[in-house]
């Protein structure tokens, strides 16, 4: 199962995209094996499927598709995402850059759950296994609020 997951994770960095790609696979194989599909495939989904290695697709057949997809979903449910809070809506390029660096630094199977937090300023916050750390300028200003206020008060006198 790890080899299937590694292929899926190759260019997928977020939890939401990973779940979407599993739905795409299920829909694709339903269409191939049973002539039905519960999800209409978009052009970029079809391009992604066509870019998958041939031996990856050959590991699925009519007899094992349900089991293999369920195993993938089970494996994915056990992975712990790194939640990244950003002060902006991350586009695909930013997600790829952040995700690539996180995997390089921490774990090649790491995936992200990226959230927008407008309260952050010039930085990010991270949450891992229930531990939240704010590395933004907003947090630093909050920590030094009293000192900053006293400094400004000197100039107001």
Describe this entry's structure for a reader.
The chain has 157 residues and is α+β, with helices and mostly antiparallel strands. It folds into two domains: 2-78, no CATH class; 82-143, no CATH class. Helices cover 56% and strands 11% of the residues. The protein has a four-stranded mixed sheet, with no helix packed on it. Strand 3 and strand 4 (131-134) form a beta hairpin. The chain is elongated and about 80 Å long.
Helix content: 55-70%
What's the number of structural domains?
2
- Sheet of most strands: 4 strands, mixed
Instruction: Give the termini separation.
Output: 69 Å
What is the 3D form?
elongated
Task: Please provide the count of β strands.
Answer: 4
Number of H/I helices = 8
Biggest β-sheet: strands ordered side by side in the sheet: 2-1-3-4
Compressed to H and E, one letter per element, the order equals HHHHHEHEEEHH
Structural class, by secondary structure, is alpha+beta
Strand fraction equals: 5-15%
Instruction: Give the oligomeric state.
Output: single chain
Radius of gyration: 21 Å
Q: Summarize model confidence as the mean pLDDT.
A: 82
- Stretches where pLDDT is under 50 for at least 5 consecutive residues are none
